[in-house]
Amino acid sequence: MKIRLSSPIVTDSVVDGRGLRTVIWCQGCSHDCAGCHNPDTHDFAGGYEQDIDELVQEILAVQMQSGVTFSGGDPMIQAASCAAIASQLKEHGTNIWCYTGFTFEELLDRPDCRQLLQYIDVLVDGKFELSLKSYELLFKGSANQRIIDVSESLKQNRVVLYQFDCV
Ligand code: SF4
Predict the structure, then answer these.
(1) pTM above 0.85, yes or no
(2) Displacement of CA 118 from its chain's centroid (Å)
(3) Hey, which of 16, 36, 44, 102 would you mutate to test ligand 1's pocket, going by the most ligand atoms within 8 Å of its Cβ?
(4) In a designed cystine with 132, which of 46, 97, 142, 154 is the match (CB 3.0 to 4.6 A)?
(5) Which residue, judged by its Cα, is nearest atom 8 of ligand 1?
């Protein structure tokens, strides 16, 4: 199985979730947010393909990371491939964050995305809204986006925001 990436993994990121994180840059996005910081990742045929098992081995070889973050592009465009990666990482106890332009509620209607959500610890959801952009925000670009505790949200069948002070 393969995934389409826009670029190689980045390690030691401190802006894509809590701690030092390895970031997977997924290619393909349909949201077309005004002011998008990463327009080169939109083309579904852009980037390049990588074997999923090779990518997982590459990620697991990186030392001293707090977790892995799916970014892009929109990882939910390739939800089945991301789920295959995330399921392997979870076997190693990896903490996983994911960014998406879809809302949590929209993802619940798509079986492939629901599958991926099973492996995600924290989801940052919603399109980037230029009018709500702020540099004061932690781990998100605009105020409409939510940082969601996924397992609690699935359990309670409603959005439960991630609590930074209790982990
Ligand atoms: S969801 Fe992200 S990558 Fe896609 S257009 Fe919006 S800001 Fe850009």
Answers:
(1) yes
(2) 13
(3) 36
(4) 142
(5) 36
